Amino acid sequence: CGYWDDTVKSHSVDSLRLKCSENGGHRGAVNCLSIGSDGGLMVTGGQDATCRVWVIDHNDMSIALTDGYVQTALGTNDEDSILNCCHVLWGHSAPVTCLSFSSDLDVVVSGAMDGVICVHTVRQGKFIRKIHTGKFFSDVDSASTSSREKEVFVKKLALNDHGRFVAHLEDGMLQSYTINGVKLGCADAGEKLNAMEICSDGEMLVTGGESCHVVIRTLSDLIVRCVLDLSTHGPIRCISITPDDLNPAPQVMYIGTDDGKVTIVDRDLKSKSKRSTLEDLEEEDQGLTYLEG
Fold first, then answer.
1. Same domain, 24 and 124
2. Is the bond into 248 cis (omega within 30 degrees of 0)?
3. 5 and 150 share a domain?
4. Domain boundaries, position 258
5. Are 183 and 239 part of one and the same domain?
6. Where are the WD repeats (predicted)?
């Protein structure tokens, strides 16, 4: 996790004991981080407009991946350290606000306060491309969209293992792209989102925010397929979904709300996507469990 002292700290899960504290050369606050599904690599994004790639508790991999710039700027890696920075990812000119990392693709997408999204490889630390979210409509009607081409910072990113990702912007818009820069879809979320996750084999987007609803959309076109009303519990604060590969266990979604409770949805989200109204969901509410926070 990123701390107020501009470092990344590692704690043991059982006792919360501090095991490591590093800044990896970040000049300023660490605003976001993402750990790969294999647990071996982590990417951080900072106020200094850079992202940093870290190797977690694997000294041999750290030595193999660390580039010449990091070796010169930060020195040799500490064999006893759990966290070792191996790459600095350049491309942003404004503070990095969010990122999403796919271990399977070896790709990280990062968003900044100026509305720019950068795509990098992780293990080699190479810049791939830059995407300007303010220019999403520029190919449609340049005369009427000039006012839209403004700097609206990227609040959240969600990337699937098929190379498609969604960006949530400060003005409430959702934009869907491929990592090749192809525009897929755009929609107005209509609220401030606090959580955004991709689930069900990378085909569905789940969001939650201040409107107290969990909204499920198809990732390709961002069309709403299902809405779950949790207004009795307050705004949605966080959403987490168990991986698809935990077979034969069913996929479960955990939803944290403003009243300190966790709502557990234990039905498969693909079947939910076939229901278009909230009433359809309420007909089968036995799949919802409420736990005190």
1. yes
2. yes
3. yes
4. 192-293
5. no
6. 23-54, 89-130
| CA 128 remoteness from chain centre | 18
Does 141 lie in the same domain as 266? no
Q: Do residues 27 and 48 touch, judged by C-beta distance below 8 A?
A: yes
Give the predicted TM-score (pTM) of the model: 0.81
Encode pLDDT of 76-102 as tens digits. Answer: 666 667 888 889 999 999 999 999 999
- Quote the percentage of the chain above a pLDDT of 90: 52
- CATH code for position 54: 2.130.10.10
Residue 144 and residue 42 share a domain: yes
Residue 279's φ and ψ, nearest 5 degrees, are -60, -35
pLDDT of 49: 93
Residue 277 tokens read as 């109204």
Q: Which pLDDT belongs to residue 136?
A: 86
Boundary of a domain, candidates 166, 188, 210? 188
- With vertex at residue 124, the alpha carbon angle to CA 219 and CA 8, rounded to the nearest 5 degrees, is 80
Q: Which of 62, 59, 117 is nearest to 92 (CA)?
A: 117
Provide the token pair at 274.
């076939």
pLDDT digits (tens, 9 = 90+) for 136-179: 887 555 444 444 456 789 999 999 999 999 999 999 999 999 99
Q: Closest by alpha carbon to 234, among 262, 257, 255?
A: 257
